Amino acid sequence: MYKLWIVMAHTYKSRLRTKAFIITTIVSLLLIVGLTNMQTIVGLFDEEEVHKVAVIDASDRFFEPLKQQVDASSDEIEMVKVTESESLTEEKVQEGEYDALLVLEENSEGLPSGLFKAESVSDAGWMNKIESSLQQTKVMIATQNLGVDPAELSNLYAPVSFETEALKENAKTEEELNQARSIVYVLLFVIYFAVIFYGSMIATEVATEKSSRVMEILISSVSPVKQMFGKIFGIALLGLTQFALLFTAGFISMKYAPKPETPASIDSFTDFIAIDQLPVSTMIYAVVFFFLGFLLYATLLAMLGSLVNKVEEANQVITPVILIIVVAFMIAMSGLGNPDATFVTITSYIPFFTPMIMFLRAGMLNIPIWEVMIGILILVATIGIFAMIAAQVYRGGVLMYGNATSLKSLKKALIFAKR
Are 350 and 411 contained in the same domain? Predict the structure, then answer.
């Protein structure tokens, strides 16, 4: 056991000091701080700009109601009525006196239609506001022509009252379900990223030592099994260290970052993550399934890494395992919209999919505890079986040199392990 801790500490310290880990951590911290302060950062460079739009209204009926609609919906658009010719006004747009030209015309039904001209139509934000305001003006004029009271029309188009109520005992409300969905969505990404990134790191770690022939020295003092699990636990501790730093930075940044004065502030991002409202049970499930899922895939990836001699070969050998992780993630993403689906329930008991999909069900639904325990027991049993196989393959694989060719390499490694 003492040697196991030595291997784990050595793996952790050596990886912790690498430039790749330090640079990745710093970049990730800057990215998280940037994302959580995106509205504030954008506000520093995005100055308030008023778009001046020249309007030609030949009918002299639509400008005033349109201007009222625009003024009520936006402060960044100024509508100016002009009596000059269309060609002359276009020249002024090109010279920069106006940002755009809007030509209002009356169709055969007596309703407005518009022709919008600008140097560039790439900025769709404020242009869409003008289009929306013109649409509302058209509806208002049409109702007046039909003799309909605008107030009655507003009541007609008012959103219908529609509430949902779950009859199943202990079922989550729609609000609770939406909140759980956002939390599970983020945690699924964390599990997916961690398993792929740190699991691949284990495989390349083993392959690197084999390529430098350091493995031949290590196995004389430490058994291959202790090496394998020492590396797995060392990389796992490295991942926990990095995630702890990122989580702490993200939490502090969201909590204490200055909030912009605009309505669309950072609160939307904070509400999406909602760390303060994270249920304790969901957090426990996330830790349990993250740990078990990492052990399952890390064991397989360490086993496959022991079969290759070059780091370049490691990426090829571990590809099937990575594809399984991707499939599990895609199923979990599709299950976010319907976690009660039969397909989601069945796949949650398949060991390779259990870490993500059972966590999805446990986080979003109030499923019986025995279902979660069955999923955990299946994972533990599968990890135990693969650990015994991987230990034998690892013991023989670290002594193998040559090209790794799928099943033949596994058989050869098992033969070496028995000698």
Answer: yes
204 and 60, same structural domain?
A: no
pLDDT tens-place string over residues 338-392: 888 888 899 999 998 998 898 888 888 888 889 999 999 999 999 888 887 777 7
Question: What is the model's pTM?
Answer: 0.64
91 and 32, same structural domain? no
Which pLDDT score, from 0 to 100, does residue 377 have? 95
Domain boundary among 132, 157, 182: 157
Q: Smallest Cα–Cα separation from 354: which of 304, 296, 298?
A: 296
Residues of the chain with pLDDT under 70: 1, 39-48, 121-124, 150-154, 156-158, 161-179, 206-207, 209-225, 257-279, 306, 308-312, 394-419
Q: Are 231 and 298 in contact (CB under 8 A)?
A: no
Classify each residue of 348-359 as buried b or exposed e, where b means 16 or more C-beta atoms within 10 Å of its C-beta: beebbbbbbbbb
| Contacts with 343 (C-beta within 8 Å, 6 or more apart), sequence order | 331, 335
- Give the Cβ contact number of residue 123 at 10 Å: 13
Let me know: does 310 contact 211? Beta carbons within 8 Å: yes
